[in-house]
Each structure stands twice: as structure tokens, then as C-alpha cells.
Amino acid sequence: MQAEMEPLLRVEGVSRRFGGLLAVNGLDLTVQPGEIFGLIGPNGAGKSTTFNVISGFLAPSSGTVQLSGRTLPGGKAGTASKAGLVRTFQHGSYVRSMSVRDNIRLGTLARIAPGQRTGKVREAAALLGLTEMLDEIAGSLPHGLQRLVSIAIAIASAPKLLCLDEPLTGLNETEVATVLQVLDDYRKTNGRAILLVEHNMKAVMSICDRIHVLHHGEFLAAGTPAEIQGNPAVIEAYLGNAHAT
Fold it and tell me: What is the pLDDT of residues 144-165, one digit of tens each?
């Protein structure tokens, strides 16, 4: 019998309290190499807290986060990034006054050897369709292109796990299609995996291999897009009111 593949990301028993508020309670999940894994739920479900704990911006009150079998220290985003877990932010993560080229180069500093950084910048720009804009000032670009710059910065670090926080916010249908194609292409190379937090349910259902649903900080359901769409508890708690655009 073939041995089960070791997960790239393993979250075990993770809880997070803010004073008397239990924002996340006993969360378990795994993400496999080459997988696009969606984390969804209604507002207040605990998605952002979970995302911040996984990416090292918050320490868990209990439980562990492991990347490639290595337990990551809680609350140390820099250590997580150097280990290969890199995230974007909901409202963008770039320097408006810098060129697209220099922004993407920032993404290479933590993990890429100096002699390879120029090549990684070119690769990330080409993947996101930004090659012709490398010398443009990032803050002067349209909103959709600014979102692509944020993703390019993260991809330039060659992460094992790319964590995307609402990457499709504010994008039109054409831009959404572009980003989804980029993500699909990216995960097919070198076993890269993506953890996606996103409210665009149509996009989530079209791109994710598996989906984990949170509700009031606790596990509600997990499965393939088809299984999640047909789950009565998910429909009642979330999908019945979720926007499909």
C-alpha cells in the first residue's frame, strides 16, 4: 500500500483567545503539496485570526502549526516567511512610491540568494503579466494591477506555501479570471501550495481542491467544492447568504 503523502502544512488543535473571547477553537487542518486549499466562512467566523496564526502574525493560545514537519514558533512571521510560508494582506502589501520592479525585489530578500534575485523578479513579473510595467510606480497603477503586484511580491520569494488573504477583492471579472489562471499555473510547478481566504464563492468553488469552513471560530465542514456546496449545514450558515460573484 502506498504511504500517505506528508502534508506540507499541518495545523493541530489551534485555539486563539483574546481575553475572554475564544476566536478560534481547536482547529485541525492539513494542506498538501500542490494543493489549493480554501478557508471560508461568514464574517466573524475566525478566518482572519486563523490566517494570522498560521502565518505567524499571532501566536496560538494552544496548538501547533507545522510546515514540512517543522513546528513554527508562534507569533514570529519572519521565521515563518524564511521557512517558506509567505502571505499577502487583504488591502495589499506593496510600497506605493516604489517601482513595480523594486517592490517585487523586496519579496526576494528573505529567501533568495543575491545572485538569483533578478531572475526571480523577472519570473514573478512574467507570471503575473507585469513585465511591461516593471519600471512603473506601483501606486500609479490601476487597482487590479496593484493586487497583482502584491501577489508577485509573495511569489518572488519562492514560497512552499503561498497564503492569500482576499486576493480578488475589488477585481473585475477579467482580472479575477487572470488571477485564478495564475494561481492554477503556479501550483502546478514544484509542488507549490496555496492557502486561500476569499469571499468570492464562485472563484473559490472553481479553483480550490478542498475547502474548510469555519463558523463562530469552530470547524463546520470540510471537503471538495461539490461536497461543500451540497452540505446542508454550510448552506444554512453561510452559502445561502454568500455572494456568488
Answer: 889 899 999 999 999 999 999 9
Q: Please state whether 134 falls in left (phi above 0), alpha (psi between -120 and 50) or beta.
A: alpha
Half-sphere exposure in the Cβ direction for 206 (13 Å, CA): 14
Q: What are phi and psi of 218, to 5 degrees?
A: -125, 160
CA distance 74 to 78: 11
Q: Which stretches within the chain are classed as H helix? A: 47-54, 77-83, 100-106, 117-127, 143-155, 173-187, 201-207, 225-229, 232-234
Q: Mean pLDDT across the stretch 160-171?
A: 90
Give the number of residues written for the chain: 245
| Side-by-side strand order, sheet with 70-71 | 21-31, 9-18, 62-67, 70-71
Torsion angle of alpha carbons 61, 67, 70, 72, nearest 10°? -30
- Cα(212)–Cα(87) distance, rounded to whole angstroms? 18
* Residues 22 and 217: beta-carbon distance below 8 Å: yes
Q: How far apart are CA 52 and CA 5, in angstroms?
A: 26
pLDDT in tens, 119-132: 999 999 998 899 99
CB-CB neighbours of 155 under 10 Å: 24
Asked whether residue 245 carries a pLDDT value surpassing 70, the answer given is no
Cell numbers given for 221: 465542514
pLDDT for the residue numbered 101? 97
Q: What is the pLDDT of residues 189-226, one digit of tens each?
A: 767 899 999 999 999 999 999 999 999 999 999 999 99
- In the chain, the amino acid numbered 155 is I
Residue with cell 509567505: 86
